[in-house]
Amino acid sequence: MVSVLLDHGADPNKIANCVFTPLVSSLLGGSLECMKLIIQAGANVNGAGFNGATPLLLACSRPGNIGFINCLLESGANPNIPDEEVVEVLLLSTHRAPTFPDWSVGGIIGYVNSAAYKEWARNASCKRKDDLKLQGNSAFNSKNYDAAILLYSLAMKFDNTDPMLYSNRSVCWLHLGIGDEALSDAQMCSKIQPEWAKGYFRQGMAFFLLQDYAGASEVLHRALKLDPRNVAIAKSLQDVLEAMNPRKEESSAAFGRQKKRNRRSRAGDGHTQKGMNTLRS
C-alpha cells in the first residue's frame, strides 16, 4: 500500500496532525520496510516531527530499534542532535524527581552543566571504573582472559588515562597469544606513565611473542634500568638475548652434550677396569 501511494505522488515529507511525518509513523508502526520505501521516495531523514524530534532521536529513545537506527544513519541522518532536543523528548516519558528543584528542559540542562553535577559525575565514573577493574582482575585470576579484556575495556570508558588498565589488558592479550594488541596496550601504558617499568616489561613480552627480539631487548633494558632488582624482567631479558644468539646457544648445548658423553665414557672405562680386576682375582 505504501509503495502504491508513493508511486502515485504521495508526499514523503508531509506532516500529519502537526506531529507525525511518514518516517516517524513508519518507526512508531514498527515497519522497517516502509521506512526504506519512504526514504527511497525522497523523505528528509532529518525532518522534525513529533515535538521537533527527528526520526533518529525517536529511534534512539526506544529499545529494540537497531535496524531503524542503522537505516537512518546509512541514509544520512544527523547523529549530532542538540542536548535541548534530547532532553525535551525524553522528558515526556519521565516522572518528576521529588528532590529536583527545576524539572524542566532548562532546569535539567542547567544542573548537568553545573559544577556540583560535574563533581558528582567524576566521582561516579571513578567508582565505576574501579569496580570494573576489580571484576577484570577477578576474571584474569580465573584465567578468563576474554572476559577480563571486556571488563578492562569497559573501565576505560570511564577513565582512559589509567596505565594499569592498559597494562592489565596487555597481559591478557599475551595469554591469548595476540601480540599486536598486547604491544599496542603496553605502548599506551608507557605513553601515559613513561617512568613505570611494567609498561616496558609488557612491551618486551609482546615483542618477544612477535619474535622481534631487537625490540624486546631495547625495551627490557629500559625496564631493567627503571627497576634493577626486578627478577622477572632480568630473566625475560636473558631469554631474549639467548633467542638473539641461537648459534651461541647451539654451541653451548653441543658443548654440554659433549661433556655428558665424556662423563659417560669415563664412567664406562671405570666399569671396564673394575670388571677386569674382578676377572683377575
UniProtKB/TrEMBL annotation:
This is Uncharacterized protein. The keyword Repeat applies. InterPro entries: Ankyrin_rpt (IPR002110), Cul2-RING_E3_ligase_SR (IPR051616), TPR_2 (IPR013105), TPR_rpt (IPR019734). ANK repeats lie at residues 51-84. TPR repeats lie at residues 197-230. Keywords: ANK repeat, Repeat, TPR repeat. Residues 248-281 are annotated as: Disordered. It comes from Zizania palustris. It comes from the Eukaryota. Signal peptide: none annotated.
